[in-house]
Hints:
CATH architecture: 4-Layer Sandwich
Order of helices and strands: EEHEHEEEEEHHEHHEEEEHEEEE
Low-confidence stretches: none
Shape: globular
Amino acid sequence: MSLQIRPLQKTFGAEVSGLDLSKPLTSQTIAELKSLWHKYELLLFRNQTMDEAEIVSFSKQLGDLEIHIRKEFLSQKSPEILYVSNMTKEGKPVGILADSEVGWHYDQIYLPRPAVGSFLFSVKLPSSGGETSFSDMSAAYAALPQSMKNAIDGKKAVQSYEAFNALYSVPTSTEQKKKTPDIEHPLVRVHPYSGKKALYICPGMTTQIVGLDKSTSDDLLQELFDWSTKPEFVYSHVWQLGDGLLWDNACTMHKREPFDPKQERLMKRTTILPEPKYAVPV
């Protein structure tokens, strides 16, 4: 099978054509895809037709799948799928983060075995808006002055799912809070497969740099947040129906752009885990 590759912008991202993701892929094609995934950090597949079982099947070829903590927003038939939507059913939200805009974040940065990838498939889209923007955190790290790299290399930061929920008014149950205590991860994450270094922080969940007082930590984090979302590091994806986006969740953060809340948007997401050895030691 011949894959055609078209870069999406200067530092990262590529459109891959020549694949039908609803069909089982050969081991050779999977190996090629994984190589492209970690090289370009974000892969776009256009004009796909996939049901939930096919979304799960494709994603499982890339690694173990995380079952999201927000069980109320999971597919009943395929719990590996998280609904991301503003739609409602019988007065209740169908998907996570239904009624609020979501700032820059990494998926599952708050877990001991943080995700290495996410796959998002478009099912229903507003007529305009609702783009997903991505920041190339490995390029952002590489472009830092050496003095800043020296200041942050080896440090850890606290990641808090509770802080994220408080920021975006998404209530969690007591059980969910118990399963997601605050956790420390390296401020600079070394990619488990490519070995690339990337800033591993996000405004939604990174609350403090370990070892620094709150004021100093806040100032440094804000400087890094501002740096990492400079236009040269960002790609904003304009969705089409049938788009599938696979991104490297070890070195890209993302956010959803605004759209008219009166229009419906439904996306289906899986979250891909690295090998178990890349969990945080306990």
